[in-house]
Every structure is written in C-alpha cells, then in structure tokens.
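Protein 1 of 2
SEQ + STRUCT:
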Amino acid sequence: QAAQVTVTGSASQTPALTPGQVAQAVVISAGKAGENVDIQLAGRVITIQAGVDLQRGQTLELQRTDAGASDKVALKLLSVAAVTSVMPNFRPGQTLLAEVIKLLPQQSILLALPQAGKLPVPLELDISRLNSSFKPGQQLLLQILGNAPLSVALKTPNPNLSENLISQQRRLLPFVFAQPPQLQNVINSLPDLRTMTPVQNALSQLWQNIRETQTVQQSANLQQAIQQSGVFLERQLMQPNPVISGDFKANLLKLAAALEGQIRQTANGQINAQNLPVEIRNA
C-alpha cells in the first residue's frame, strides 16, 4: 500500500528527481516505523521516516509527489521488496572500489559497493583495529583477503597524474564531440538578417571566435585558445580597458543583448511569449 515518506532535509540535499519520477533506493540502516532510516537514492544518501519497518538491504520504490516549488521534497513509498542476498561473490585477491556511506557506532563504517546496472550493495566493516579515520563520501579500495569469514584490506586510491588526466578526458570527450545547437532556425525565424546589423555583428563575432577541434591541434592556435581562457583570461580582464575578442561569455551576452533589442523593436517594445520566435520560446 502506498504510504507517504517524510524526508528530513532540504531539497538541495536530495537527489534531483523530477515531480512524478519513480526511482529505486536501497536501505542502508534499519529502523522501525516512524524512525529515521538512511537510504541511498540516485547515488546520494538521505534520511527518511517511513510508516513501515525497514531492514538493511531492502529495495524501495519511491515516487516524488511534490510540484518542485518548495524547499521540501515529498516522496511516496510505492513498494518495499524483501531482503534478498545480493552480496557479490568475493574472491581472494579481488580489489573493489567502495564508497564510505556512514560512520556507525562501535567503530564500524558502512560502505557501498557499486554494481554495474544495479543498486549498490551495503557492507558493514569493523574498523576498531585500524589506525585510520574515515569520512562519508570517501573512496576506498577494498581488497579481499579471504571470504570465510570475510577479511579485507582497505587502501586509499592514489591515481597518478596520467590516470587522472585520462579519466578527465574520457569524461569531457562527449561534450567536445557533441554537436552545438544550430542557430540557423533562430536566425530564419527572425526578420531579414540584413536589417539586423547589431545581431549580425554580434553573431559573427561569436562564431568567428569559436575554435573547432581541428583548429586547436595546431600549437599556435592552441596557445591562443589557452591565453583566452581560464586564469589567463581573468588576468587580462583585471587590466584597465582590456580588448579581448575571444571571451566566449562576453560575446554570448552581446548576442543576447542584440537579440533582445531586435525583439523589442519588432514587438514595439513589448516582450511576451507570443512575440518570440518559436525556437526561442521553446528553448
């Protein structure tokens, strides 16, 4: 039976679920009905109060029921699955990446072991014989020493610089090769571009200063791109009356101002949804 769930915390601390969205969560600390219980939902640990008893390892199906306008998130409990044995089949010598979820009493910590395409598995470890301190969110390498009983060694990942760079590159590559939104539909939906000199100039300046992947493979162009970005750009902006043509944000703001001026001129100074081109209104 569906039951309301109280989330103890603000919306900013809760995973970004859209109103009406249904998501699965796993219980990581047990509790009686009405008690505070920790769950892992969409990769984040939150504390809830439910009207039913919950056991560690149970899978919950939750739905966001608020409109998203307030600071509080309202969730509805749709179903509670029975506890099943989801512990991975550990092999001695195996190394797993784990995340510290919570510090427990009696010198124990609660870890989450990620699974491909599945909810993470909670694992409680006794750290009373360790001389280390841990904090929630910390990443650890879990090396399996034996499984009867389970015995592990904990290590802190220490990736070298090249591994970090490769990881960042893999994360950013989809953005690099993603096709930029086409501006042609927006241009076509506005009046004749030849009568829009401010927009034409701002658009040309923006477009001419966007570097493609092939361009920055040349050392001179790469150096110029670096000089017009990040802290290098900030240093130039601190100088009195800086003249910078490649400031993407500034060029984008100039184009926005030119478009707004043109729209106001077309709409006799009045802007509302009906006056805007379809592409802009939809965006």
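Protein 2 of 2
SEQ + STRUCT:
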Amino acid sequence: MKSTTNFLILNQSCSDLLATFSRIIYIAVLQDTSLRKLWFGGIPGLVTCKLFLTCLFVPRNFSVLILVAIAFDRFFAVTQPFRQSPLSKHLKKTIVFLWLWCIIASSYMLAKGSVQNIQDSFYCDYNENPDQVFNEWKEFNVTAVVIFCLLPVLVVVVLYTIVCYKLWSRKVPGEQTNQNQGSAEALKTAKKVTRMMVVVAALFVLCWFPYYLTLLVQFSSHGPRNYKSELSLIWLTVAFSGFNPYIYLTFNQAFRTGFHHLFGKNSRKIKIPKVMFFRSQSVELEQM
C-alpha cells in the first residue's frame, strides 16, 4: 500500500483530524462565548492562541491541495503509464512544500491572533479595531476562497475529466494473452482508484462550497453574521473529514484488508460486510 496516492491520502487524513478537532473547539467557542474564558494568559496562552487560529485554516487549505496533487498523480499515471510521475519522484518534498505553503498562507492568523484580558477573563481573538479587522478579514478570506477553493477545484475537474475520458474510452484487445490480462487488470484498478478519488473530490465540493459561498455573500453584503447557519455549515465541513474513511473502505479492498488486519476480530462488529455486499451488487450490475 506504499503508493504515492496512499501517502497523499495519509497526509489528508492527518489534515482531517487536525481540522476536526480545531473546528469542534471553534464551534464550542462560537456557540457559547463564556467558553473563551477558559483561555489563559502569558506567553503559553499567546502561542497556543495563535496556533489555534492558524489551525482553523491550514488543514482546510492543505486538504484541497492534496486533492489537486492526487488528481495530478492520477492524470500522469493514466496519460503516461510507463513513466514515473514527477510527484512520485519528489513526494516528500512536495508534501513538505504543501504544508509550508498552507502555513505561510495563514500567517495572518499568526500575526493578528492575541489573548485579551477583559475583566479577569482571557479571550483568544484579534487585537484590532472592528473596521480594520473586517477589511483585512475580507481580503484574507476572499483571497483564500479563490486560491484554495475555486482554482484548485477547477484544476481537479479538468484533470479528472481527461482521466475519465481516457480510461473509459480505452479498450483492451480481446485475445486472452498474459499481457492483455495484465493490461485489463491494470485498467480495472485504475478505474477503481479514479472512481474513489472522484467521489472524494465531489464530496469536498458538496461539504465546503456552501461554507465558502456564505463567506463571499457575508463579506459582499457587510451584514450581521448568522451564527446558527454558520454553525451548520461548519458542521458540514467537519462531516467531509468523517465521510472520507467510509469512502476508502467502500472502494478499496486494500483498505478493508488492512482495517481487518489492524483491528482483528473486533472489526467484525463494524458493518463493513454490508458495504461490501452493496458494492458487490453494483459490480455485478456493471458486469451485466
């Protein structure tokens, strides 16, 4: 399982975990303002506050960039099957670069985040006047939506459109030679992986686009924030991280085998066989 795609999925999983925990803390703070009093002062409070605010943005930006990297890897594997992709050659450097890029892009949080002491209570927030915060916050979010949402999703759509066209239009010769059987098996595997990642990309769009569109509408209208709708949209973005493992278990036999191997007999209690049963029906329908 030590393939380029799986290493990228591993990093996406780490990003999903970080995004989930930071978003849950943010939801608790947003829903109950008194919880912000649990913060503490001093240098440790300032450092943790800046890191917390940064963690709200780094994982979400990294997640979409990983989807772009996986799409590029699938594109190169399908269009140039006999060559090693540049991403595979420089995998570690690429992953480190993506993490650093996302951290640098969120440097606004590191710079502006501060702990305020108001009536003996500590608040992790931005130490600026409201008008200046709104203007800077607007520029930061609009830029993030364009660079880390619209453009990456456009690239992913274009790459997977080309990949799907080439895969499903490719035909294997009918003679049952060993070479043709190997080509047919490789084509089948490529279709499975591509189908899995297309579902993940589509799920990202469904879970994250409402949140991004709401940000754009909010900053364009300069109106009051609707905290209830914002909470529901944040929960929807967290749901993206929760759905991903089930997608990988559904579409990838290697993940299911590794899951059973890791958890042993306890994994039998989880209803993975039903997922496999429904999927086996879909495979039979495809064969028919």
